[in-house]
Amino acid sequence: MMFVIVGHMKVYSHIYGVDNEAYEIYNLNKVWNGFFMQGFFFITGYCSTFSKKWKDYIYGNIKGILVPLLMVSFIISLIHLIFGFRSNTYQDWEKGFLKVSFDYWFLNSIFLAKIIYYPIAKLNFYRKCYATLLLFIVGFCLWKYNILPEIWYFKHAFMLIPFMAAGEVLRYRTLAIKHYLISFLLFGVTLLSVLIMGIEPTVIAFDVHLDWNNLVQALIIGTCGSISLLGLCKIIGKCCVLEYIGRNTLVIFMFHLVPLHIFLVLFHPITEWNGMIGWSAVFTSIIISSLLFVWILNLKPFKWIVGKY
Fold it and tell me: Domain residue spans in the chain?
């Protein structure tokens, strides 16, 4: 989630006309662009139970993903409408609500990926590999050659399902420290080789940067980076604050653009004076305000908004 916020600080500083080289953070986004979204799907596969009955499984995902998507979108649409954010897209309520809902492409895509992967999870290891890699290639071809409209980002779901499968497979295996170190080393060597050769790392996020000649790179960096991220998550689990952020990632993902808009503009004079102080102020303020929003939604009268009922 923190990778997403840092990346969006860079993107939206351009959009809001408050550019500063501090938001480039030395182009470190190239380090995590190749695995951060794959990591989301990997961790989702690792934490999900695919052995539930079909009806319970569908109900759980509607409750845990679609209900928060619609309800939090509704609240954020109101905030945009009241305070005039994105005024050019909010000329009428319905378009504004739909715009916000479909902005959360990640939630749409992960819901579809979990539904599609449910029957695949019943297969043995090798058939899972074949099925998910086939979906990866199909999703890539559909995206590259612009075949079919991108309904609920199903092409992204196809391309990211292999990483969900990897997470689900590793859920039932115990990895030693050496396995995490090997994954981190392979991730680092592959990424460093790519950067030394002047090749742009692959990206599978809202924007996709993939081609036939770097599909293997995408799979290696995505998988090894995700396993390394899993090792980091196990360490983070010992820190209650970071663990709390992790458990509420979906809500923070949906809400963070609101305070991001406010604090990028509010702290712009500070960022102009000292880039890193301004960057730190924006980042910290986004985290604190997002956690406050999470805390409110976890209060008993509001839990139903995030599917906790």
Answer: 1-32+237-309, 35-227
